[in-house]
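During the second year of the project, the team shifted from modelling isolated chains to modelling whole assemblies. The rationale, set out in the original proposal, was that interfaces cannot be judged from single-chain predictions alone. As a representative example for this report, we include one of the complexes processed in the last quarter. Its constituent sequences, exactly as entered into the pipeline, are reproduced here:
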Amino acid sequence: MTVTDSNQPAPDSPADSSAANCCHNPGSCTPRRSLLYQGLTALISTIIVAIPASLGGLFFLDPILRRQKSSNSSQPGAAARKDENGFIRLDVTREAVPQDGTPVSVTVFDDIEDAWNRFPNVPVGSIWLRKVGDGPILAFNSICPHLGCSVNYRRAENDFFCPCHTSAFALDGKKSNEVPPRDMDALEVAMRTGGKDDPAGSEIWVKFQNFRRATSERIPI
Amino acid sequence: MNALLNWFDDRTGVRKLLHEALYESVPGGARWRYVWGSTLVFTFVVQVITGFMLWSAYSPSTRTAWESVFYIQYEMTLGSVIRGLHHYSAQAMVVLMAIHLMQVVIDGAYKAPREMNFWLGIVLMMIVLGLSLTGYLLPWDQKGYYATQVTTNIMSATPVVGAEVQTLAQGGRDYGHLTLTRFFAMHAGILPAMLVGFLALHIYVFRRHGLTVHDPKHAPDAQFWPDQVLKDAVACLGVLSVVLMLAVLRPAELSAPADPAVKFDAARPEWYFLFLFRFLRFHAVEALGLTFGAIIVPGIIMGIIAVMPLTERVLGRAGHFLNKAFMWSLAVGVVVLTVMAFYEDANDPGHQAALAEAHRDAGRAIELAKSPDRIPVDGAVALLRRDPFTQGPRLFAQHCASCHRWNGHDGRGTLVTDALKPGESGAPPVTPPTAADLGNFASRDWMKAILVDYSNHFRWLKNASWYSAAKEQQSKGESVEFLDPDASEMADWTSGNAESLKSPENADNVTALVEFLFAEAARPGAELDAALVAKGKALATEGNWAGALNGTSCSSCHDTIGQPFPAEVDESSGNGYPTLAAYGSVAWLKDFIRHPDALRHYGAKNRMPAYSANQLTDTDLELLVRWMTGDYPKSTVADYPSMLERIPEPK
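Output from the structure prediction step:
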């Protein structure tokens, strides 16, 4: 921006490029500076504001700039509830899941790291567990893939239903209307005995993950 | 482009505004002496930018304030620089403000018609000091906590409404969550808003009357843009460079998390208030009371400054001279008192020891907060409360250091000294320890010293009054049981076998026995030579030494050596010799501190007080013992230096 002053001659007159000696006419002093002089002033003025502002801006971008840290711990959690692959042992066992295929809601515990704090062994989410006869255990994250509300089980309709925006899912997690962008998020399940893989074991270990909402793809957060 | 600018100007009048802002006449030419006001505005802008950024990560509560500042300082991108900029710019602002005020008085810029602007400036000064004060508490560290306690207690000395003022400032009777939320609201909301308002008025009135020209004939007249702006910008760049350099080279301090239960003897106000701190410590000022020194005197000084325009108006030139003389005397007084405060602190061993402890605690808190376990929900203060490395030295100083020493000091890095007698001067004499120095307790050196250097190792006992009393009784032929470093069975064994113990043929055996005893102490993280331990154990129980020592085993007296320390002790057990079952281990040491007079320890020979749970709680005993045996996460924080050379030898 060039500020023009009607009281002054054009500032780019070559006659007074000297900064030290500014006046044409000592009687009524009309100081004129070369563009260079004005440019220098503008430059320094910009620098002194730009430095703190850009440092501040970088600081504000910290959540993006810092190395990505999972909010859930990657280390095995308290009392060996979590293994190195991220599987967490649930409190319920195979026997506690209803035989008739009715889903049960289970709270998952893990350690949470939140900025400066670490909360050991706290609830981190809830999942739906379902067993069909003696078949495999199915696990679904109870967060709706639409916009993150909670999916409930409707006994009357015998389906999963999200009351916020009426997303509905069959008991196998398949979406049954066009509201949700994808099926319910199925989670990996491992049956174990004493922490060792055992298809006939009664310990239920689940790889608990949250996924980005409102996309048709499953993208872990 | 031009059309757009014209449109914009037509609606806003921005060109006229800019013209007025930039083409202010500067009679006598642009000068460096006019830059101070601009640098103040600039530092305020820096404070606003960095302050908003810090705000985006700061969490005001007693369990999150220190923690979030720690996170800013040590984890966030450029966090240390942003906090440093804010920290040092605040100090720069106070310095620049002082220069600005001095110059205004010297140049007579307060005279009519500029009185109103002078008073506006004084209001601004108060707001800036208020910002410094409220900001100092926000990290909720020991330094800010205790320094601000002093300030709020001074508020309580205000006549009539003191207690109410204090309660309002604190948000309650004591410091707590609400103190932080209120201070934060003042610091980031109310005071800055007032500052912006008064600054706008200040600049408006300044422009109305124009610059106070120091010397109109100095040079031909110039204009604000670009002549003076360039000088202002260069000065601001200078300020920014200094502040940025300090922020990078000397990051802002974060002392240990505030703990009302832990004394902080290193408490000092920020350096620009040190003069007032020192002034309050004059005996004459103390004698006149806190209200006089901390409220009336500063009030009178501010009052004299505030009436300077009137003084000049009434007294004319003499008044101006008086005003200048007052400012110069004030400046000299402030400098002298500040230098005195720094000098005295630097030469005060008590203050230096308190500083050393403060740095150790701060370093430890930061180290623990950085560990993979992070900070627990009950805050960083709980990390330190549960940390043997932090609590052990304090418990030792409190309970043990009246007899024992830790590497020559009291555990907290301070020499134990006697009071100077009336009329004496100089350093107070070092109090001789009357029990063992425990700095290397249960280390290999300790075990070896007991084996080959017993009398010397326990020589400190000879300083005790019970020792001389027992010696005297003994010389009278009375029977008295006590531990004599020069004449006990153990002393006799080591001195009687000194030649054989120190002979080359037994060198390996001594090393093995020391390794075994050290293994018995079960120090966490100790690297042991298993073969040596086994060899040492055989020596202890079977006595298969070389030469004259052969056949003398430890277990012939200390019959439980090599056994684990019993989970439940039989009170009647003991054979008159101290038990060496797991000697030096956590279990042994806990039992010893609780029952040194038990038969299994020193029995009738004991002179150490038994520490019951009433004197030393189980939690404190655990912390003390874990510290003494090195059972805590290792620290990279510098520990207190050894003071062993300064301990006088027993006569």
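The two ends of chain B are 96 Å apart (CA to CA). Chain B has four domains: 24-258, 270-339, 351-398, 444-632.
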